[in-house]
Amino acid sequence: METPGSQTSLHRANLERVVRAVRMAGSLTQAEIARSTGLSAATVSNIVRELKEGGTVEVTPTSAGGRRARSVSLSGDAGIVIGVDFGHTHLRVAVGNLAHQVLAEESEPLDVDASSEEGFGRAEVLVKRLIADTGISADKVIGVGLGVPGPIDVESGTLGSTSILPGWTGINPSDELSRRLGVPVYVDNDANLGALGELVWGSGRGVKDLAYIKVASGVGAGLVINGQIYRGPGGTAGEIGHITLDESGPVCRCGNRGCLETFASARYVLPLLQPSHGPDLTMDRVVQLAREGDPGCRRVIADVGRHIGSGVANLCNLLNPTRVVLGGNLAEAGELVLAPIRESVSRYAIPSAARQLSLLPGALGSRAEVLGALALVLSEMGDSTLMDSSAGSGSALSAGGPAFT
Q1: Where are the beta strands (DSSP E) in 110-259?
Q2: Which candidate, 347, 349, 341, places its Cα nearest to that of 316?
Q3: Which helix (H) or strand (E) holds 325?
Q4: In 329-376, which ranges are E strands?
Q5: In this predicted model, what pLDDT tens digit does every residue of 342-394 receive, in sequence order?
Q6: Which of 80, 172, 84 shows the shortest CA–CA distance to 123?
């Protein structure tokens, strides 16, 4: 029996500290592990040797600062994680191992607004097919990260706004997918997962305070404070799309008037251009035309950028983030949208906060949310479970690459 404060208990805690550091970084040298955990080099060396012998980590030769070193990563055989991203018009699933490699990934069109039953059914089929494609036993699945395009009520686990997904009223996404797949499912909204993905593998690497702005059919923000996703007590932190810009503006789906979303999201922006560009116009096409020099599309994107910049300025004044990352298809417009955002931030934010801010486009593109779902599992799963995962997770799943970046 382990007793608190005993040598056995201390050793177990040190094992978990090393595994946790490697799990979130993907790979670290032993010197980097020592710096991040505060353990001595000798202790790290002994722990890495033990974890390697147990099959939890792999050690490969590398170099650091021109010197020979050993890179430590979680074993590809230690387990796999699944990422599922429901967008308003798509379903994307990725299978990754614990060494931060994507083993299989696929996206397909889906009207997620229509029916939760259809959505979860399609997700179940796609997950099982991709696992089969990897050739890895389904018993190796440790957990699933699930992204949905709406706020999650932290008390009930249900979607907090039925106006966003009316066909999902009363549904607990985590419970429903876990029932189908037989493994733990961790759920969060798409903006938070985009923030987590960019924080771990994208434009947010190296910072601890970050805001990820996603502009699509809605406008949302994922907030990272001191390296952790901040959700708020009710799970609705980051709803930047409902900052009021004009009290006499258009009525928003939330019931208020003049929200940022009514000036920036696709559902409000596209009708401005459809009379001149056709009813089948999409935001991807608007961005493409703007990059090619279309004056109307350029004007609309610039206007959207200035409105988003007003919301970002409010974030700067309240939270003073180090970095803001723009995600969604609008980020593909580059400086056409980033320059107007900076202009508004410079005008409306406190000067010291504006000076400290860096604004970047997302590095992961449309994959940010599904990679964030993989990262969610990596951040939520227990290190004890990971170290014992070689015995199998007991998954009920049946089988029926490139790096994450």
Answers
A1: 141-148, 185-189, 210-215, 219-225, 228-230
A2: 349
A3: strand 323-327
A4: 358-361
A5: 999 999 999 999 999 999 999 999 899 999 999 999 888 765 555 655 434 44
A6: 84
